[in-house]
């Protein structure tokens, strides 16, 4: 026997954060790398492309894009051998939700639309009767 009142049949989570974000994995159009930045390394160009098309970028304002430009310049310097920028790059990308831990801290989740479609189209699980009939059909063929 349990103590206290019986839980409601349709319990509601009360600790859902009001600013939580659910982002889609659909590819974002992003932006082209501005030529005026003078980015010369392929690593920095790849960094821009990854972040510009990330699910997070769908929510970005102009100030966020300006931060991406600055960070891409730091990444370009890093790939040219200036390793003192590594910590700054890590701090900046953490604020955008670079890792799973960062996204959890920011209350940001990424919804995989492909899995949702697969779940909708998945066949229903077979009951024991269905399994027996399938086995009987296989053994008698």
Strand content: 5-15%
Looking at how many chains there are and whether they match, the oligomeric state comes to single chain
Major sheet attributes: 2 strands, parallel
Q: Mean pLDDT score, rounded? A: 82
Helix and strand composition category = mainly alpha
First and last CA, distance: 54 Å
The low-confidence parts are: none
Radius of gyration: 24 Å
Tally of helical runs: 6
Listing every helix as H and every strand as E from the N terminus to the C terminus, the arrangement reads EHHHHEHH
Strand line-up of the largest beta sheet: 1-2
The proportion of residues forming helix, as a percent range, comes to 40-55%
Q: In total, how many beta strands?
A: 2
Shape: extended
Give your account of this protein's structure.
With 141 residues, the protein is mainly alpha-helical. The chain has a domain of 85 residues. It is 48% helix and 6% strand. Strands 1-2 form a two-stranded parallel ribbon. Helix 1 runs antiparallel to helix 2. It starts with 20 loop residues before the first strand and ends with a helix.
What layout of secondary structure does this protein have?
Layout: E1 21-24, H1 42-52, H2 62-79, H3 86-96, H4 100-105, E2 108-111, H5 113-121, H6 128-139
Parallel strand pairs: 1-2
Helix pairs in contact: 1-2, 2-3
